[in-house]
Amino acid sequence: MIANNGRLKIAIQKSGRLTDDSISLLRACGLEFEFQKQSLYSPCRNFGLDVLALRDDDIPEYVQDGVADLGIVGENIVREKRAQVATFTKLGYGHCRLTLSVPRRSKIRTVAQLNRKRIATTYPAILQQFLRSQKLKAEIIELSGSVELAPTLDVADAICDIVSTGTTLRMNGLVPLHVVLASEAMLIANRETMKHPEKKRLVERLLIRISGSLQARGKRYMMMNAPSSAISRIASILPSLKSPTVVPLAEAGMVAVHSVIAEDVLWDVMEKLKEAGASDIIVIPIETIIR
Ligand code: PRT
Ligand code: ZN
After folding, report:
1. pTM for the complete prediction?
2. If you measure from the C-alpha of residue 232 to the centroid of ligand 1, how many angstroms do you get, rounded to a whole number?
3. How far away, in angstroms, is 162 Cα from ligand 1 center?
4. Atom of ligand 1 nearest to the CA of 183
5. Per residue in 159-179, pLDDT tens?
6. Around ion ligand 2, which residues have CB less than 5 A away?
7. What is the DSSP string of 66-85?
8. What are phi and psi of 81, to 5 degrees?
9. Cα 288 to the center of its chain, rounded Å
10. b or e along 21-48 (b: 16 or more beta carbons within 10 Å of the residue's beta carbon)?
């Protein structure tokens, strides 16, 4: 039995695609804990929070029932389980698409042509809701795994399954027809947790930290020296958060320019800055950005 001691409990996937990123996110929020797959329960040393390791399919229901206050799980699972939980924020990892797909040689080329066909899935609730919204009647073949084999085995005419790179579809001679749900990992919460003042305070502190580390993701801090005469050119090249920070240097006519920069444009921007007169360009990681 896990004590209800005013500490927050957050459920994350015990072992799977979301586990490493979920642990990294919590650690990036400054939380110190050991995480062992074998143990259900890892207390945080420096924050009133305990980490529970569970199967992803169980997380929405455990959060709904208050076994955990918070949970990190794919939106696909939250929607499929129809759990009554509060949804806080998407977390920027675990991206995938719940997709309707058909055999390459199939005559089915549109969603409408799925009418009265058989569709295999491990997501019967989401699929049912989608079919209803499209006013389609189709037989849902509920499987517990290896959905991609269903057309080959002639168990189904189409499948509705999670796709990430598309390799599994290709290897099984399937082509995507329609994305039913684009999903990523998200933070969910028990609806009563925010009514508990101590827990609410902890959740709010955690949310600020999570948002800080999400803001910092994919960003770098850049510093450079430049002649003051080049500031306006440099400022026009820098896609900064606000305006760049400009600090005078001991050497007359020279300044240091500081700015936040997105990783994906880093090299292009550095080349342009150099052409514009910047020198000694330094780029360093950012841990968090609290606004
Ligand atoms: O043991 P437990 O029940 O906790 O784990 P699990 O095996 O049910 O889940 P897991 O670890 O496979 O996935 C956890 C979550 O990661 C999912 O609920 C999704 O939100 C997300 N996710 C992201 C994915 C994928 N990408 C993914 N590619 N979940 C599953 N897949 C599978 C998919 O089912 C298919 O078999 O990967 C295959 C397709 O991948 P591609 O790359 O070939 O397209
Ligand atoms: Zn699962």
Report:
1. 0.90
2. 48
3. 7
4. 20
5. 999 999 999 999 999 999 999
6. 56-57
7. TSSSEEEEEHHHHHHHT---
8. -80, -10
9. 17
10. bbbebbebbebebebeeeeeebebeebb
Q: Buried (b) or exposed (e) across 6-16, using 16+ Cβ within 10 A?
A: ebbbbbbbbee
Nearest to 129 by CA among 177, 189, 76: 76
Ligand 1 closest atom vs CA 57: 3
Q: Which atom of ligand 1 is nearest to the CA of 14?
A: 4
Q: Is residue 183 within 6 Å of ligand 1 at its C-beta? A: yes
Q: How many helices (H) and strands (E) does the chain have?
A: 8, 15
Q: Which residue has the tokens 């002639």?
A: 154
Residue 158 has a pLDDT of 98
> Which ligand is the nearest neighbour of the Cα of 15?
1
| Burial class of 113 by CB neighbour count within 10 A (0 to 12, 13 to 18, 19+) | middle
* Nearest ligand 1 atom to alpha carbon 163: 44
Nearest-CA residue for atom 5 of ligand 1:
16
Q: Rounded mean pLDDT of 94-101?
A: 98
List the residue whose alpha carbon is closest to atom 27 of ligand 1: 164
Which of 105, 199, 195 minimizes the C-alpha distance to 158? 105
Q: Which two tokens stand for residue 151?
A: 């057309």
